[in-house]
UniProtKB/TrEMBL annotation:
GO CC terms in record: NADH dehydrogenase complex; plasma membrane
UniProt catalytic activity: a quinone + NADH + 5 H(+)(in) = a quinol + NAD(+) + 4 H(+)(out)
Taxon lineage: Bacteria, Bacillati, Actinomycetota, Actinomycetes, Streptosporangiales
Enzyme class: translocase
Ranges in a coiled coil: none
Enzyme Commission code(s) on record: 7.1.1.-
Keyword Repeat included in the entry's annotation: no
UniProt keyword annotation of Repeat present: no
Subcellular localization: Cell membrane; Membrane
UniProt KW keywords: Membrane, NAD, Quinone, Transmembrane, Transmembrane helix, Transport
Gene3D superfamilies: NADH:ubiquinone/plastoquinone oxidoreductase, chain 3 (1.20.58.1610)
Function: NDH-1 shuttles electrons from NADH, via FMN and iron-sulfur (Fe-S) centers, to quinones in the respiratory chain.
Identification of the protein by name: NADH-quinone oxidoreductase subunit
């Protein structure tokens, strides 16, 4: 398996083997499991409460706002880790420091905006 396409053949072979193992496990599960469906087993189950009414429920917009703020902080953390690793590299010190403070300034500006609009209050 030398040559240019040898690596691709190896990856394709491993992919086929992986798919075969997963398909074989799912097939064995289907063949070996007992199947006795009853009306009680086929009902919707959620947290031990019998389903009543339709499934439509409104949720408040503040849940989405907190989720959005979490995503902002997660993205912030994703950018901070690579910055912390390259900050020590020679030649990148002051440039990366300024860039990161500009980035953190934009994040802080967004947090101040959300705070001033009273988005962060839970009432």
């Amino acid at each position: 398996m030398d040559g240019y396409y040898g690596s691709y053949v190896l990856v394709a072979a491993l992919l086929v083997i992986g798919v075969a193992i997963v398909a074989g496990a799912l097939l064995a599960n289907r063949l070996l499991r007992p199947s006795r469906p009853t009306p009680d087993k086929l009902t919707t189950y959620e947290c031990g409460v019998d389903p009543v009414g339709d499934g439509w429920a409104q949720s408040q917009v503040r849940y989405y706002v907190f989720t959005y703020l979490y995503v902002v902080f997660a993205v912030d953390a994703v950018f901070l880790f690579p910055w912390a690793t390259i900050f020590d590299a020679p030649g990148y010190g002051m440039t990366t420091l300024v860039e990161m403070f500009v980035f953190l300034g934009f994040i802080a500006l967004g947090i101040v905006y959300a705070w001033r609009k009273r988005v962060l209050t839970w009432t």
